[in-house]
Design a protein that fits this description.
The chain is an all-alpha fold. Helices cover 79% and strands 0% of the residues. α3 packs antiparallel against α4 and α4 runs antiparallel to α5.
């Protein structure tokens, strides 16, 4: 609902919906759960989109701390989704070095778990390339995008959203 409110240019309704979702989640889950972190991050990203960084920062920091606690130093199958969330949280706060480091470790785990030619590897390479681009590492980002495209095209047609997204990133 909040996304629709944003598209309809109704930010007050969107904020209300996101705040209600966060409160509901806090009532149904432990305070430091990933579910609470996800909704806190959504609210923080909303505030950022409204140029309200002072309101966004506490929510984004809270979510990042929760994601960090889920990852620790373990980079195996169980941590893959949390590493991705943590890396995205780092990116929203312009912590590109940290995001690249996490995504490189995560990519290694994804390859070990699923094999080297799996769609999740393509997604991992795309995520890493986006972070590398944010860090100003254009050459490694292009290399990873080209590898991601080769893998994605093994499984999907050229009009599949992942393939299109990778192609668009290559041409930017």
């Amino acid at each position: 609902m909040a996304e629709n409110d944003v598209l309809l240019q109704q930010p007050a309704e969107a904020q209300s919906c996101l705040e209600e979702a966060l409160q509901t989640t806090k009532g149904n889950f432990k305070e430091r759960s990933t579910e609470v972190a996800d909704n806190s991050e959504r609210l923080g990203l909303f505030f950022r989109s409204q140029k309200q960084e002072d309101k966004a920062k506490p929510h984004l920091d809270f979510a990042r701390d929760i994601y960090r606690s889920c990852v620790g130093t373990y980079f195996g199958y169980a941590s893959i989704p949390y590493v991705q969330k943590l890396a995205k949280a780092d990116e929203t706060q312009d912590r590109w070095d940290e995001a690249v480091d996490l995504l490189q470790k995560n990519l290694q785990s994804v390859r070990e778990t699923y094999g080297v030619e799996h769609p999740r590897v393509a997604v991992g390479l795309l995520d890493l390339a986006e972070a590398q681009t944010g860090l100003g590492q254009a050459a490694p980002a292009q290399k990873n995008l080209k590898e991601a495209l080769k893998i994605a095209q093994i499984f999907y047609r050229n009009d599949y959203p992942l393939v299109v997204t990778i192609q668009n990133q290559i041409h930017q």
